[in-house]
Amino acid sequence: MAASAELLPGTLDILILKAVSLGRLHGYGVLLRIEQISGGALQIQQGALYPALYRLEHQGLIDSEWGTSENNRKAKFYRLTAAGRKRLGEETASWQRFAQAVARSLAATPQEI
Amino acid sequence: MLRRLGTRIRSLWNGITRSQSIDAEMQEEFRLHLEMRTEDLVRRGVAPDEAARLARLEFGKTDHHRQDARRARGLGALEELRFSLLDLKLGARMLVKYPGLTFVGGLGIAIAIAFSTTFFAFSAAILSGLPLDEGDRIVGLDYFDTKGNDEEQRIIHDVEAWRTELKSITDIGARQSIQRNLFTSDGRAEPVTIAEMSASGFRLARVPAMLGRHLLNSDEIEGAPPVLVIGHDVWRARFGSDSSIIGRQADWAARRTLSSVSCRGALRSRFITNTGLRCDSMRPTMSDDGDRRFTYSVGLLTVPRWRRRRPSCVPTANAWRSTSRGRTKTCRRG
């Protein structure tokens, strides 16, 4: 199991968008999917998940519909909208630029200055 | 952009119109979450009761999440309003339930409103103008730095400029207060507050001197003999209410310089009272001193305020402000 990492502020939304971009998911499924794709490194606060889901739905970045879960229970499933897909692309590019800049800064040596 | 705005409005509308069903859906979603988490923990070997307890502990309070979720949907303000309506409803019930308390509270509010209304009406009637002849035409003049929101001191050249430029003011007086030690013929020396003021200040007040005369324009001319007009209290306390005081010499000292002045008049007590001038004596200003700074200037409006539709300001600086007791009027340039 990978070492756990602190979730940076503002990154939960992009992780949710990524999780639902891989297929429609109910709330608990989103939680499990994020843990799965992060290799168990990211633990999401369960209480923070639903406000984030409703916020993204309010913004039109994800959509929801009621359906039946894998164990035949009524569940609300979320899926990415076109606007959400566009936002995910933008946020991913922005995050990669940021991560590369931080990584490059941290890797700097005295000889490079 | 428009589509996103439409989505938000639709979401908000749903939140308002389907409030109860959305709450029920949230509860259903939370319940499913807790059940699935409990099953996961059971599969990991936790006892069912303990697993349910742990799931609830991890999830936290559902009411709290429900409120957060409503705020996330943009329904935070509505949530506050709902609380306010509830408060109003509760308040109305309490008023009906305790009529005695309602009566006392209502009476107290009525008395407070009546008292404050009477007070402000009385103040407005009393403080409508200075208690001088045509006091409603007398206004205070200040330079006002609109950017720094602060008054600026005036020098004598400013006052001269106002005299020539201001069309809404017919006459202007200015003064500043200084402290001097006044020596009288009996050898006593006591500090007095002297108002250095323009002769026009006396013209504006229109209160004749009790003895002798007040200051004249000729007293302001350079080289004119130094003169002094004393206040009623000084006349009584320092000169023993002597009616032959006119023309008598008095000395005052500013630091180490001793000057001699001739007393030219004594003022009625109501001059000090009515003008609000806090001083013991007055001496004329010397207009050739360009750095002389005045703490207060007054002017006489060409038309009484009650006949003026609005103040007509003539630009001399950033802005000028006219004041009278209890009232402040500020007008900007142009």
Q: How does this structure look, described?
A:
The complex is a heterodimer of chains A (113) and B (334). Chain A is built from four helices and three strands. Chain A has 113 residues and is α+β, with helices and mostly antiparallel strands. Chain A has one domain (11-112): Orthogonal Bundle (Arc Repressor Mutant, subunit A). In chain A, a hairpin with a 5-residue loop joins strand 2 (62-68) and strand 3. In chain A, helix 1 (11-21) crosses helix 4 (82-106). The longest helix of chain A has 25 residues, at 82-106. The N and C termini of chain A lie far apart (38 Å). The model of chain A has no long low-confidence stretch (mean pLDDT 86). By secondary structure, chain B is α+β, with helices and mostly antiparallel strands. In chain B, the strands form two sheets. A six-stranded mixed barrel of chain B has the order 4-5-10-7-9-8. In chain B, strand 13 (319-324) and strand 14 (327-332) form a beta hairpin.
| Order of SSEs of chain B | HHHHHHEEEHEEHEEHEEHEEEEE
CATH class of chain A: Mainly Alpha
Lateral arrangement of strands in the main beta sheet of chain B: 4-5-10-7-9-8
Low-confidence stretches of chain B: 309-334
Q: Give the termini distance of chain B in whole angstroms.
A: 44 Å
**Overall geometric form of chain B:** elongated
Task: Estimate percent helicity of chain A.
Answer: 40-55%
For the biggest sheet of chain A, the summary is: 3 strands, antiparallel
* Number of beta-strand segments of chain A: 3
Helix percent band of chain B: 40-55%
At CATH level 2, the architecture of chain A is: Orthogonal Bundle
Secondary structural class of chain A: alpha+beta
Number of discrete helical segments of chain B: 10
Q: Largest interface, counted with CB-CB under 8 A? A: A-B, 21 and 27 residues
Number of individual domains of chain A? 1
> How many discrete domains of chain B?
2
CATH domain fold name of chain A = Arc Repressor Mutant, subunit A
Main β-sheet, spatial strand arrangement of chain A:
1-3-2
Rg of chain B is 37 Å
Strand content of chain A: 5-15%
